[in-house]
Amino acid sequence: MRIVVDLNRCQGYAQCVPLAPDVLKLSGEEALMYDPTPPRLVAPAGIASCGFLPGASDHCGRVRQERGESVKTSALVADLITEFKTNGRIVIVGASLAGLRAAETLRDEGFNGSLTIIGDEKQEPYDRPPLSKQVLKGWVRADHTLLPRLRTVDADWRLGVAATGLDRTNKVVRLANGDQVPFDRLLIATGTRARPWFNPKEAELEGLFTLRTADDAAKLQAALAAKPGRVLIIGAGFIGSEMASVCRELGLNVTVAERGGGPLVGALGGVIGDIAAEMQRDAGVDLRLGISVQSLEGDAKGHVRRAKLSDGTTLDVDVVVASLGSIRNTEWLDGAGLAAGFWGVACDAGCRVFDVNGVVTDSIFVAGDIARAPHVLYDYQFLVLEHWDNAVFGGQVAAHNMVSLEPDRRPHLPLPAFWSGQFGVNIKGVGVGPFGDEIVITQGSVKDRRFAAAYGRRGRIVAAVTFNHGKWLEYYGRLIERSAPFPPPPPGYDLADGDMKPMPARFPDPRAPTAFPDVVLTGHDPTERGAEYQPKKR
Ligand code: FAD
Predict the structure, then answer these.
(1) Fewer C-beta within 10 Å: the chain N or C terminus?
(2) pLDDT tens across 427-448, in order?
(3) What angle, rounded to 10 degrees, do the helices at 238-249 and 214-225 form?
(4) C-alpha–C-alpha distance, residues 412 and 509, integer Å
(5) pTM score, whole prediction
(6) Is the CB of 262 under 6 A from ligand 1?
(7) What's the CA gap between 394 and 373, in Å, rounded?
(8) What is the rounded distance in angstroms from the CA atom of residue 422 to the CA atom of residue 219?
(9) Mutation probe of ligand 1 site: the residue of 91, 92, 96 with most atoms within 8 A of C-beta
């Protein structure tokens, strides 16, 4: 006799017992005992690979049993995991830092099933941080920044083809070339792209660049090596400031136009922004603050030659770099019913993606720049961390959780960390500065550009930044992890020049509206209400 138990429909294992009392009995533990038990689990072909693992619920709960012996649930589950690791299908979309590190972890953790890695760039995974530093300086070629492989990864690499859609019902990823790739588990690691210049006509001008990819870096490097008369960088975030620094190292005239009150203000606040502004001006950058670029004009050959600024002035330029932040690559998920959009792809701390209603999915995971997860240290707020460390550790945790049972899953709760090199200063940070509203210089000397500063909120330390003082980061990191009081106790020596008085950190107002919602709530009955995706009018 054969019994099929549909674990999707069965709300609790014990429900089956009264339905088939002659073959099922409960042994006192909260688990269904099958009597008799087969020597080992026999699952119908094609469904055993999912089983009890996260994401298995749609078709993997049915377990075929031979009459005869009794098997404990834990043994069944272990069998299903083994089966999944042997015959399961995992697809990773996004073949860069997070995707590669996830793939390596999957193989490290014994996943021997089919692994497909889809990436729209033709290159093998490469590192982006050198693009705005060593590559632009001409020290390293853009195509020489491939990421080191931590191990060989046996996978079907589909490079140079974009994912264009996700069909969650049939569990397939649709590709631009018409192919459909089926999966049991999916990892979304599609990161971000550079925000283009807002005027599409002007965006076609020769000599106008953005920087995100190795191709972008190769083209910009060539343009800088041709010794242009003046470079205009629009936006003084980390990448814009790094590029300005490189320009000065190359002896180029460079203007930086920044709409806000100083460089790095969005990430580090106005106090540090003032210091960064001084660094830029000391290095000979023509820094224009509170100024936006309103339009770009080209010559008869379509090469950019002039920029009109918001103060009414005009600037003659030969190279313009729009460094306007990033856009998250979520369009291919439109209509898939996931919590994906302007802010990224929302997930729990274990990297499992939320659907549009905020219900966690079991078979779709996300990692890297595109992921948006709640962080226990920051009031469980959903954070997007566009930093290298976050992509590495997020990819690794997501991969681990994709092949693990609930009790073995790990949270991805990194202490956010970043670094930047500009104007001869090594800037490093831990925590989330913009979460704080106060700052105090704790060590070193601002004048010498060798100092540490801590950020606080409601009497707790939430972040720290160092300029040429990175050896102290670990100390501050430990304080942040413990939510230690702010201002923090001085570390004992190398005290700051000043009076160590906290001051307002001067971050931009986070309430400024930035995006339109693309999800609405529908339904009158609260038990039937659901969120509905509304395509953006682009
Ligand atoms: P990405 O690296 O963005 O990779 C996503 C991949 O998915 C890309 O290859 C993309 O083309 C692909 N993709 C997108 N859509 C699709 C689709 N539909 N189908 C298939 N493939 C798709 N961080 C630091 O901490 N310190 C630094 O100094 C630093 N410097 C940086 C300098 C530059 C110039 C840049 C651009 C970034 C820098 N970063 C730095 C950030 C760091 O590089 C990122 O955090 C990291 O690359 C994120 O990795 P990821 O895999 O999540 O995303």
Answers:
(1) C
(2) 999 999 999 999 999 999 999 9
(3) 30
(4) 28
(5) 0.86
(6) no
(7) 10
(8) 21
(9) 96
